[in-house]
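Researcher: Go.
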Amino acid sequence: MTTSATTGNALTVSVPAGTPFIDVRREFDASVSALFEAHRDPEKIKQWLGPDGFEMKIELYDFTTGGRYRYVHTCDGEEYRFNGVFHTVRENELAVQTFEYEGFGDVVAIETLTFDSLTEDRSRLTIHSTYPSVESRDGMVQSGMEGGLSQGYIKLDALLRDGGVGAPSQDED
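Model: Structure:
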């Protein structure tokens, strides 16, 4: 499966037959530090993560080794809750996390996000997700995951392009 984004950076989603894996690859016209920051900062996450038309509320987001997250996407009065743990976070390089959609209890994926610098102003994100079974992996694929990823990454492209990502945000008093 491959979905093209408006920027020309294609989203590639691979679902190998007979395995519980999903592999995602996407390039961005931004530095690896800007891409990483867009995944670290909850205020930035709210601007791009998820499908179009969904509102996002972050209840907890600590993008550090041992940190946790929990957020809710809302659309047309329906709520979709997600949570997980960041097992390892290495600046501008790697995040290993769990991912759980609370609507399907007992199905927790382990995801490795790899951030690669291609040039000074170009980077690649690679995600390898491991599900507990082929059936649970197939359920995620059939949920519209690829469309939501594509829409979210198009929003992330705009955020990166418009300068909304770069230096870490500063709290204002």
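Model: The chain has four helices and nine strands.
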